[in-house]
Recover the amino acids of this structure.
């Protein structure tokens, strides 16, 4: 068995106060540098899977290991290795932060208490801004940007953290096709550097030009988990979801 | 503390109390409004009001009773919301009503028993009846709030931006939230005897709302809000002493007037108007 960077063993997760578990009996092992696409119908438990990996939800049964350690036991330590682009965000015009301030926040967890960001942190912010091609938005207020630009800022925020594992929940939902392809290229380059990418997505018009692991979920369970060439991803997800 | 500036002891005490309470509340107001926990602040303020009313009725230390009432709300909120399986906002509405009912019940009872004069101070505040120790307490809490915001600025700003993103970034959001609620509870409990349970909320929201009209970043709001709150309260105190008017209600009215003027002259509105005008011309 290879050294999986993310390993879920017989995991059952529920939201606080919910009567039934949202995902159950999940077994999944993801190797370092793998590109994983999680698909499936609405309500299949895809976002819950990402939140479980990030240690945001209580695990009723089983274990979630990041780099061989239990996420719920070493939450704060392991989260430094994780990036998570959330699905639902709505930064209105009242949000009092510039793009640069948002990106530097990604470094705060790495710094710990009482320490201020230094040159290295601002250099990581610069790199993330240029990677996403949004360096010109540095001083703009995030609330005054379009949905697509905000999405790019959130992806850049996570890149500034230099994570080992990047979780993305519907990262293409607010982006036009050209931007989707650009973001997908960026994610591929990051994966080539050894960062593990796990994406929940419904959009298959921008896919990496490399084999990906396709995970299809249905009613809180994984019904398919296999390495697939990019041209077969859409069909594989559709057929498995419909079967 | 400010005797070297204001020789009259009574005026000096009132000025100090209003200044310290306003600066502390002005800073917390930014956190309360930006974290969108206004209803928590509102309910905690009424928890303090109820606690103080119960404390006064039973002859206990009023400030301590107000702190207990306020903290009780903060710690009841989570478990109650889980058990009742209802949105936090609904639970806050219920708790607010319950706290108000408790406060009014004991107030009315004290009025019946001939303790009406003392009890009215709970509702409308009485800055002139403060002890020196209470003013020192206020100064201490104000300093504590300032130190808290400076030391934990990066954690606070992350939480204001997005709670879930902050948590994933590795910020310990839960303990930070508890510390913040504790700070609000202390500030609320010590400010209540000055401005009263009914007006307290003005100090916990309005300064930040005024500051927001002129500031685009959190740092600027953090500085502007306490400066605005302190200035309005000082002017209110001075006018009230000059014309023999009630200090806290007058200051609260001034807050509302300044907010109104701020909204009218806000550069944010001007920019929006100019943009709209430009579109119309096209």
């Amino acid at each position: 068995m290879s050294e999986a960077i993310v390993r879920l063993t017989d995991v059952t997760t529920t939201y606080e106060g919910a009567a039934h578990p949202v995902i159950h009996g999940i077994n999944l092992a993801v190797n370092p540098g793998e590109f994983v696409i999680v698909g499936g119908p609405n309500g299949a438990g895809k976002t819950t899977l990402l939140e479980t990996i990030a240690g945001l939800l209580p695990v009723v049964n089983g274990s979630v290991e990041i780099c061989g350690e239990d996420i719920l036991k070493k939450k704060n330590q392991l989260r430094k290795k994780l990036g998570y682009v959330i699905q639902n965000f709505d930064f209105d015009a009242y949000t009092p932060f510039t793009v640069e301030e948002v990106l530097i926040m990604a470094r705060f967890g790495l710094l710990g208490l009482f320490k201020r960001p230094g040159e290295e942190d601002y250099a990581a912010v610069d790199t993330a801004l240029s990677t996403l091609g949004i360096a010109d938005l540095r001083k703009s207020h995030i609330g005054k940007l379009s949905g697509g630009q905000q999405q790019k800022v959130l992806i850049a925020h996570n890149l500034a953290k230099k994570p080992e594992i990047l979780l993305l929940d519907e990262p293409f939902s607010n982006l036009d096709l050209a931007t989707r392809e650009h973001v997908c290229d960026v994610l591929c380059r990051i994966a080539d550097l050894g960062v593990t990418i796990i994406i929940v997505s419904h959009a298959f018009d921008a896919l990496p030009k490399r084999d990906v692991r396709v995970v299809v979920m249905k009613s809180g369970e994984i019904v398919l988990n296999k390495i697939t060439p990019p041209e077969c991803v859409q069909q594989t997800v559709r057929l498995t979801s419909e079967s | 503390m400010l005797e070297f500036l204001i020789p009259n002891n009574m005026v000096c005490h009132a000025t100090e109390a209003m200044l310290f309470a306003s600066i502390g509340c002005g800073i917390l107001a930014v956190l309360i409004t930006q974290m969108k926990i206004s209803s928590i602040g509102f309910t905690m303020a009424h928890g303090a009001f109820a606690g103080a009313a119960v404390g006064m009725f039973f002859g206990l230390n009023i400030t301590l009773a107000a702190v207990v009432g306020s903290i009780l709300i903060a710690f009841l909120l989570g478990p109650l919301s889980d058990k009742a399986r209802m949105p936090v906002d609904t639970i806050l509405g219920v708790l607010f009503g319950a706290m108000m009912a408790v406060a009014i019940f004991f107030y009315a009872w004290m009025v019946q028993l001939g303790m009406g004069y003392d009890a009215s101070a709970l509702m409308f505040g009485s800055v002139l009846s403060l002890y020196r120790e209470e003013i020192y307490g206020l100064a201490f809490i104000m300093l504590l709030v300032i130190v808290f915001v400076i030391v934990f600025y990066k954690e606070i700003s992350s939480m204001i931006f997005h709670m879930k993103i902050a948590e994933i970034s590795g910020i310990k959001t839960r303990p930070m939230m508890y510390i913040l609620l504790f700070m609000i509870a202390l500030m609320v409990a010590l400010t209540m005897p000055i401005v009263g349970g009914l007006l307290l909320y003005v100090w916990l929201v309005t300064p930040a709302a005024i500051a927001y009209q002129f500031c685009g970043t959190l740092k600027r709001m953090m500085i502007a809000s306490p400066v605005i709150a302190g200035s309005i309260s000082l002017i209110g105190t001075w006018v009230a002493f000059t014309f023999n008017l009630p200090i806290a209600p007058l200051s609260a009215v001034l807050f509302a007037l300044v907010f109104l003027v701020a909204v009218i002259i806000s550069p944010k509105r001007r920019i929006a108007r100019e943009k709209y005008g430009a579109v119309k011309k096209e």
User: Anything to note?
Assistant: Chain B is about 85% helix and 0% strand. The first helix of chain B runs from residue 9 to 34. The interface with chain A takes residues 34, 82, 85, 151-152, 154-155, 157-158, 160-162, 164-172, 212, 215-218, 221 of chain B (CB under 8 Å).
